[in-house]
C-alpha cells in the first residue's frame, strides 16, 4: 500500500510525538549509557539477522496486524530486558535504532519505520513504568521467585495492551477495518508469544544484575535467537507460498477480465465463513487459498470462450465446465494447499446432485467446497459485471437462503449471514474494467446459475 490516508498519517504523527514525550526526561537522568547503547545495538542486530525479507519487519500503516503474530515478528527479549533494567525513558530509547533501521518492503518506508519505532517506544516506556511502579527494580536486583514474576507479568500485560490499542487504531485508519472489529483478537494472539519473550527478558535482567554480569545475560539470547531463526524460516516458506498463489491468481485475472479481483474477494468471504464456523487458524488459511484459487482452472479454458459476448452453446458450456478438473490437476502437486485442492475440484457441486463435475450429493461434497460455493455465489451477485450491476448484500443473502438446502449448504449460508451481520462486507477495491450496463432480463437466480462467473445461455 503506497498511499496512506491522511488520518492515518496524523495518527502516526501523534504516536511519534507521544514517543518523544516519553523520552523527554532523558537529559535529566543519570543512566548507564553503555547499557542503553549495548541493548540498542543488540536489538538492532537481532532484528536484522532474524527477520527475512517480506515478513513483518518494521511494521507499518496499511498492513493487516492479524497476518503476523505480534510479539514473534520482532525480537523482544532485548527490549523487555531493557524495560526491566532501565528507567522508562531510557528503555524507550533502546527500540529506536532497530526499528528505524529495519528492512521495509512496502512504501512509504519512512512512515512505516517511524510508526514501528514510535509504537515500540511507547509500549516499552509503559512496560517499564508499570514494572518499576510495582517494585520491579528491587525484584531484579534481589529476585525472590515467584514474587519477581508479578511486576514482570504486569509489564508484559501492559506491553501487549499498548500494542493492541495502537495496532487497532492503525487498522481502523489505514486499512479501514470497521472500528468494532479492528481490535478483535489482537490482544489474545499477542499475549502468549510476548509472555515467552518476557520470561527471557526477565532472565536477562536478573543475570545482568547478578555477579555473573552482562556476559551471562547475553547467553539467554542464544536459544531465543534459534527459535526466532526457525520462525523466520517459517515466514520465508509462507512468503514463497504467497508468491505461488499470487502468480496463479494474476495469470487468471489477465486471461479472464470478468473475474478481476473476484478471486481475492471469494477468499475473503470464505475466511469469514470459516471463522464463524470455528475452524482453527491453519484450516482458515488453507481455505483462504481455496477461495483465491477456485477458478485457477480457467487457465486451461480457451480465452475466446471466457471472453465471448453472448450466450454459450451447450458444447462451449461443457468445455468451460471442465475448469474445476483443470484446476485440480494444476495444483495437485502443491503440497501446502491440502484440503484446498478438493475445494477447487468440487466448488460447483450442488447439494441436490445437479452440480458438476461429478454430481456429488449432500455430505459427499467436501466441507471446503461447500464453503467456497457460497462465497463464490455471494461475490458473483454483489460484484458489478459488464452485463449487470452489483446486487445489494441483503438481496444476495436472501437469494442464498432461498437456494440453501438444494444448491448450498444451509450451515455455510447461515455462517456467512452471521459474519456479515457482525462485520459487514468490505471487499478489497479493484479496478472496474467494464461499465455497469445490466440487461433488463438479468436476475439474481441467473447469477447463481452461471457456472463460471460470466453470462450463462
Please name the defining characteristics of this protein.
disordered C terminus; about 450 residues; about 0% strand; 2 domains; Hypothetical protein af1432; mainly alpha
The dominant shape is elongated
**Helix/strand/pairing category:** mainly alpha
Total helices: the number is 21
Number of E-type strands = 0
Largest pleated sheet: none
Which percent bin holds the helix content?
A: 55-70%
Distance between the termini: 40 Å
- As for the number of domains, it is 2
Low-confidence stretches: 52-60, 62-73, 429-457
Order of helices and strands: HHHHHHHHHHHHHHHHHHHHH
Rg over alpha carbons: 26 Å
Residue-averaged pLDDT, rounded?
82
Strand fraction equals under 5%
For this structure, the quaternary state is single chain
What can you tell me about this protein's structure?
Its EC number is 3.1.4.-. It comes from Streptomyces lutosisoli. Helix 1 crosses helix 5 and helix 9 packs antiparallel against helix 10. This protein has 2 domains: 6-234, no CATH class; 256-449, Hypothetical protein af1432. The protein has helices at 6-23, 33-50, 76-85, 88-101, 109-133, 136-141, 149-174, 179-182, 186-209, 213-219, 221-255, 262-276, 281-293, 303-306, 314-320, 323-331, 340-346, 367-382, 393-403, 410-423, 444-449. The protein has 457 residues and is mostly helical. Mean pLDDT is 82; it is low at 52-60, 62-73 and 429-457.
Concise overview:
With 457 residues, the protein is an all-alpha fold. The protein has helices spanning 6-23, 33-50, 76-85, 88-101, 109-133, 136-141, 149-174, 179-182, 186-209, 213-219, 221-255, 262-276, 281-293, 303-306, 314-320, 323-331, 340-346, 367-382, 393-403, 410-423, 444-449. It contains 21 helices and no strands.
Amino acid at each position: 500500500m503506497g498511499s496512506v490516508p491522511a488520518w492515518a498519517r496524523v495518527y502516526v504523527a501523534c504516536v511519534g510525538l507521544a514517543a518523544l514525550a516519553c523520552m523527554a526526561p532523558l537529559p535529566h537522568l543519570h543512566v548507564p549509557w553503555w547499557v542503553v547503547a549495548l541493548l540498542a545495538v543488540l536489538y538492532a542486530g537481532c532484528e536484522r539477522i532474524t527477520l527475512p525479507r517480506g515478513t513483518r519487519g518494521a511494521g507499518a500503516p496499511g498492513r493487516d496486524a492479524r497476518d503476523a503474530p505480534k510479539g514473534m515478528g520482532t525480537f523482544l527479549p532485548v527490549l523487555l530486558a531493557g524495560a526491566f533494567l532501565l528507567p522508562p525513558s531510557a528503555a524507550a530509547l533502546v527500540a529506536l535504532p532497530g526499528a528505524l533501521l529495519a528492512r521495509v518492503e512496502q512504501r512509504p518506508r519512512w512512515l512505516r519505520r517511524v510508526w514501528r519505532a514510535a509504537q515500540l517506544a511507547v509500549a516499552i516506556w509503559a512496560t517499564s513504568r508499570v514494572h518499576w511502579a510495582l517494585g520491579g527494580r528491587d525484584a531484579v536486583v534481589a529476585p525472590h521467585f515467584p514474587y519477581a514474576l508479578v511486576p514482570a507479568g504486569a509489564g508484559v500485560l501492559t506491553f501487549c495492551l499498548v500494542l493492541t490499542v495502537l495496532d487497532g487504531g492503525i487498522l481502523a485508519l489505514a486499512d479501514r477495518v470497521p472500528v468494532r472489529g479492528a481490535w478483535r483478537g489482537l490482544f489474545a494472539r499477542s499475549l502468549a508469544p510476548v509472555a515467552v519473550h518476557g520470561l527471557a527478558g526477565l532472565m536477562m535482567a536478573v543475570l545482568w544484575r547478578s555477579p555473573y554480569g552482562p556476559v551471562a545475560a547475553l547467553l539467554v539470547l542464544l536459544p531465543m535467537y534459534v527459535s526466532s531463526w526457525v520462525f523466520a524460516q517459517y515466514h520465508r516458506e509462507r512468503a514463497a507460498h504467497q508468491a505461488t498463489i499470487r502468480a496463479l491468481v494474476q495469470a487468471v485475472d489477465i486471461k479472464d477480465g470478468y473475474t478481476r479481483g473476484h478471486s481475492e474477494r471469494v477468499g475473503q468471504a470464505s475466511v469469514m465463513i470459516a471463522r464463524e464456523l470455528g475452524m482453527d487458524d491453519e484450516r482458515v488459511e488453507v481455505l483462504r487459498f481455496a477461495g483465491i484459487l477456485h477458478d485457477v482452472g480457467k487457465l486451461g479454458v480457451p480465452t475466446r470462450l471466457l471472453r465471448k459476448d453472448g450466450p454459450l452453446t451447450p458444447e462451449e458450456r461443457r468445455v468451460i465446465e471442465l475448469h474445476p478438473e483443470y484446476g485440480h490437476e494444476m495444483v495437485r502437486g502443491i503440497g501446502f494447499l491440502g484440503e484446498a485442492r478438493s475445494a477447487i475440484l468440487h466448488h460447483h457441486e450442488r447439494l441436490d446432485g445437479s452440480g458438476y463435475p461429478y454430481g456429488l450429493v449432500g455430505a459427499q461434497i467436501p466441507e471446503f467446497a461447500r464453503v467456497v460455493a457460497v462465497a463464490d455465489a455471494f461475490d458473483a451477485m454483489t460484484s458489478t459485471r459488464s452485463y449487470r450491476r452489483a446486487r445489494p448484500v441483503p438481496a444476495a443473502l436472501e437469494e442464498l437462503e432461498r437456494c440453501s438446502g438444494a444448491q448450498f449448504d444451509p450451515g455455510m449460508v447461515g455462517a456467512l449471514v452471521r459474519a456479515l451481520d457482525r462485520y459487514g462486507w468490505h471487499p478489497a477495491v479493484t479496478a472496474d474494467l467494464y461499465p455497469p450496463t445490466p440487461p433488463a432480463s438479468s436476475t439474481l437466480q441467473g447469477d447463481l446459475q452461471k457456472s463460471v462467473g460470466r453470462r450463462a445461455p
